[in-house]
UniProtKB/TrEMBL annotation, chain A:
One of its GO terms (cellular component) is Mis6-Sim4 complex. Keywords: Centromere, Chromosome, Coiled coil, Nucleus. PANTHER family: CENTROMERE PROTEIN O, INNER KINETOCHORE SUBUNIT MAL2. Pfam families: CENP-O. Belongs to the CENP-O/MCM21 family. Its main location: nucleus. This is Centromere protein O. It comes from the Eukaryota. Residues 33-80 form a coiled coil. It is found in: Chromosome, Centromere; Nucleus.
Automatic annotation (TrEMBL), chain B:
This is Centromere protein N. Keywords: Centromere, Chromosome, Nucleus. Belongs to the CENP-N/CHL4 family. GO terms for biological process: CENP-A containing chromatin assembly; chromosome segregation. It is found in: Chromosome, Centromere; Nucleus. Pfam families: CENP-N. It comes from Solea senegalensis.
Length: 290, 344
C-alpha cells in the first residue's frame, strides 16, 4: 500500500480523476439522447408534413390534368376538395398567364404541318371588335412570313425589317398591331361619320383612311365648312393635322400644340363621333370654326 | 358634234346591252328631261338613233362621250384581259400621296412623253383610281376607239391594266412610277378577265383560311351520313384534306381566275425515251390550266384527293404569290422576266 502510494500518487490521482469524470458522464449522456430523440421526432413530423404535401401535390396534379382535359371531377372523400380545386384552378391560371406573357398577348398556334406558327392580331375600336388578321410564320431556319391576310397598304415587310423580326418578334407584332388597329379605327370612324351624319359629305378618303375631307353646313349660319383631317401618323387613329376652311377663313391646327387648346384634333374627331363630347362646356362645335 | 365622237358614241351604244342602256344613261345624267321622255328604250335601234340625234343637239363633245364610256367600263370591267403590275421600292412619302397630286403629276408626266394623248382620271366609290388614256402620236390626234384603262389603288403597290400595247407600256410605266413615288414597276405575272378577281387576290381581299384552335366550321359544314364505320375512317383524312385545301386556296367565293400558265424549261426525264433524255438542252413546253374558276377547281382537286397534299408549290403559289404565269427551270420556279403583254 505504501509502495503503491509512494509509487504513484499522481497516477492514482489521475485514476480518481477519470473515475469522477466517468461518474459525472451518465447524466450528460442522457441529455444528449433526449436531444437526439427530439430531433428525430421533429424530423419525423417534417416527414409526415412532406408526405402530406406530396399527397396534396399529387391530387392537385390529378385535378389539373382532369381540368386541362376539360372534365369536372369532384373528389368526394377528401374534405379539402374544394380548397384543392381552387388551388388547381389557381395554378392553371398562373400557367396560362405565364404562357400569355411568353407570347406577348397574341393568339398563337402551331400550323398543321408543324413547321411554323400562326399568329392572329385582332383589331378593335372603342370596344368593338373589328377584323382579325393572321400571319403564318415559318420558324426554321429563319423567321419568315409565309402567308398572311394583311392588306397591301400596311407595309408588312418594311415593318418586319425595321423591328428586326428575327430577334424581336414581339416588337414587330406590337408595331403591326398598332398599324392595324389604327387603320381599323380610322375606317370605323369614317363608317360612323357616314352612318350617323348623313348631312356630312365625305369629299375625299383613301384606302388607308389617312386623309379625310369632309364638307358640312353649320346648322344656323348655313355656311359650308370644309374640314380636312390628315392622319400622317399611321399608327394612330386620331388625325395629326386638322384643317378647317370656311368662306375664305382658315383654321389649321397641329397635334403638337398644347393639349388643352380648343382646336385639339382629338376633340374635333370625338365631337363628330359622339354627342357626349358636344355637350362638353369647354367645346362647342360651331364656335370653334370662327 | 365632230366625227370621231359620233363614231365613238355609236360604238359605245351598240356595246351596251339593251337591258343596261337605260340605267347607264340615267347615271350619266346628260340628257334633258324632255329628251329623256321621248326615248323609247324598248326599241334598241330607234333608241340609238334618237340618242345620236340628241347628243348632236346638245353639242356634246368627246369629253362627254368618254365620260359615258368610262362610266360603263367601270361598272362592267370584265370585258377584256387585265394584267397586274407591281410598283416596287417605294419612296418615303409614297404612303401619303394624295389623289389630286397623283392626278396632276400623272397627266403632266405622260404629256411630257407623248404629245397627243388624252387622259381622263376618275375615282370610283371603292377608292380605286381609274385612268383612261387615248393615244395619238406626233401627227395624229388621240384615237378614242382604242383606249387603255388603268386601275390603281393609291397607297398600294398594285396597278391593273387593260388594252395596253407593248409600245405604250414603257410610257405608262414611267408616268406611273414617277407620279406614285416609287422607283420601279414590274409585271406581277397575274392576268385574267375578271378585274375584281385579280384585285382581290393581290390585295388579299378574299376569305383566307388560317389554322385556329377552335373547332373548324369546315368540318361542321361538310357532314354527311352514310356508313358510320367507313365515315369514321375517312372523316379524319377528308377533313385534313379539306383544311389543307382551304388553307391553300381560301374559303367562300374564290377569286375567278380563268387560267394558269407554266412555261417549262426543264430537262426531259423519261427512262423509256433515251433520245429525249440524253438531249442537253432543256425541253421547252407550256402547260396551261384553264377553267371558268381555276382556284375553285384546284381546291376541289385537293379536297377530293385527286391532287396530293400538302399542295405542291406550283399550285399553291397562285394564291400565295398572286400570280398565274410561271417560268420553271431546273433550279425551281424562276421569276419570269418576259411577261406576255398583248393587246386584246
Amino acid at each position: 500500500m505504501e509502495g503503491l502510494s509512494s509509487k504513484g500518487v499522481l497516477s492514482h490521482l489521475s485514476v480518481l480523476a477519470v473515475q469522477t469524470k466517468s461518474r459525472r458522464n451518465p447524466p450528460q449522456q442522457s441529455t444528449r439522447v433526449k436531444e437526439l430523440k427530439a430531433e428525430a421526432e421533429a424530423l419525423m413530423m417534417r416527414r409526415e408534413q412532406l408526405k402530406a404535401e406530396i399527397q396534396t401535390h399529387k391530387s392537385l396534379q390529378r385535378m389539373r390534368l382532369s381540368m386541362d382535359k376539360g372534365e369536372e371531377e369532384m373528389d368526394e372523400d377528401s374534405e379539402n376538395s374544394q380548397l384543392l380545386q381552387l388551388m388547381a384552378k389557381h395554378s392553371q391560371l398562373k400557367d396560362l398567364l405565364y404562357a400569355h406573357h411568353l407570347i406577348g398577348g397574341y393568339d398563337i398556334i402551331k400550323t398543321s404541318l408543324g413547321k411554323g406558327v400562326c399568329v392572329s392580331v385582332t383589331t378593335a375600336y372603342e370596344g368593338v371588335y373589328l377584323d382579325t388578321y393572321n400571319l403564318e410564320i415559318d420558324l426554321k431556319p429563319v423567321l419568315r412570313i409565309t402567308r398572311h391576310n394583311v392588306p397591301p397598304f400596311i407595309p408588312l415587310n418594311e415593318l418586319a425589317e425595321q423591328n428586326n423580326i428575327q430577334t424581336n418578334i414581339k416588337a414587330f407584332l406590337d408595331v403591326l398591331s398598332q398599324h392595324l388597329n389604327a387603320h381599323a379605327g380610322r375606317k370605323q370612324q369614317l363608317k360612323l361619320v357616314k352612318e350617323r351624319f348623313p348631312s356630312v359629305d365625305v369629299m375625299e378618303s383613301n384606302v388607308l383612311c389617312s386623309i379625310l375631307v369632309l364638307m358640312f353646313t353649320v346648322p344656323r349660319q348655313k355656311t359650308a365648312v370644309l374640314c380636312t383631317l390628315n392622319y400622317s401618323d399611321h399608327t394612330r387613329c386620331l388625325p395629326t393635322t386638322v384643317h378647317i376652311q370656311c368662306e375664305g377663313r382658315t383654321v389649321s391646327t397641329d397635334n403638337q400644340g398644347p393639349p388643352s387648346t380648343v382646336y385639339n384634333p382629338r376633340l374635333c374627331v370625338m365631337s363628330m363621333l359622339s354627342i357626349r363630347t358636344l355637350k362638353h362646356n369647354k367645346f362647342k362645335c360651331p364656335s370653334f370654326i370662327y | 358634234m365632230d366625227d370621231p365622237s359620233q363614231r365613238l358614241l355609236r360604238r359605245l351604244l351598240r356595246r351596251i346591252p339593251a337591258g343596261n342602256l337605260k340605267t347607264t344613261l340615267e347615271k350619266w345624267g346628260r340628257l334633258t328631261a324632255a329628251q329623256w321622255r321621248t326615248i323609247d328604250f324598248t326599241q334598241t335601234k330607234s333608241s340609238i338613233v334618237q340618242m345620236l340625234a340628241f347628243c348632236a343637239e346638245n353639242e356634246f363633245t368627246m369629253k362627254h362621250i368618254t365620260e359615258l364610256e368610262m362610266m360603263y367600263v367601270i361598272d362592267n370591267p370584265n370585258k377584256g384581259m387585265w394584267y397586274a403590275f407591281q410598283l416596287i421600292d417605294p419612296e418615303a412619302d409614297s404612303q401619303s400621296l394624295e389623289l389630286t397630286q397623283f392626278k396632276e403629276q400623272f397627266k403632266s408626266h405622260l404629256c411630257e412623253l407623248v404629245r397627243n394623248v388624252s387622259v381622263k382620271i376618275k375615282k370610283h366609290t371603292d377608292e380605286a383610281v381609274w385612268i383612261r388614256i387615248a393615244w395619238g402620236d406626233s401627227y395624229s390626234r388621240p384615237n378614242h376607239l382604242k383606249p387603255t384603262y388603268i386601275v390603281h389603288h393609291l397607297q398600294t403597290p398594285y396597278v391593273f391594266v387593260t388594252g395596253l400595247s407593248p409600245k405604250q407600256r414603257p410610257l405608262v410605266s414611267q408616268a406611273l412610277v414617277l407620279s406614285s413615288r416609287y422607283h420601279a414597276i414590274k409585271a406581277a405575272n397575274l392576268s385574267g378577265r375578271n378585274l375584281t378577281a385579280i384585285r382581290d387576290l393581290l390585295m388579299k381581299q378574299y376569305q383566307q383560311v388560317f389554322p385556329t384552335r377552335f373547332p373548324s366550321p369546315l368540318s361542321e359544314r361538310n357532314q354527311s351520313v352514310s356508313n358510320p364505320q367507313i365515315e369514321r375512317e375517312h372523316a379524319g383524312h377528308k377533313e385534313n384534306r379539306l383544311q389543307m385545301a382551304s388553307e391553300t386556296f381560301g374559303d367562300g367565293m374564290l377569286p375567278q381566275l380563268q387560267s394558269s400558265v407554266y412555261k417549262l424549261e426543264t430537262k426531259f426525264r423519261d427512262r423509256a425515251n433515251q433520245t429525249m433524255t440524253e438531249r442537253e438542252e432543256p425541253f421547252k413546253c407550256v402547260v396551261k390550266f384553264a377553267s371558268t374558276n381555276l382556284l375553285e377547281s384546284l381546291k376541289l382537286c385537293v379536297s377530293s384527293g385527286i391532287a396530293s397534299t400538302p399542295v405542291t408549290p406550283l399550285l399553291s403559289s397562285i394564291p400565295l404569290k398572286g400570280r398565274n404565269y410561271f417560268v420553271i427551270t431546273d433550279n425551281g420556279p424562276a421569276p419570269s422576266s418576259q411577261m406576255p403583254l398583248s393587246q386584246n
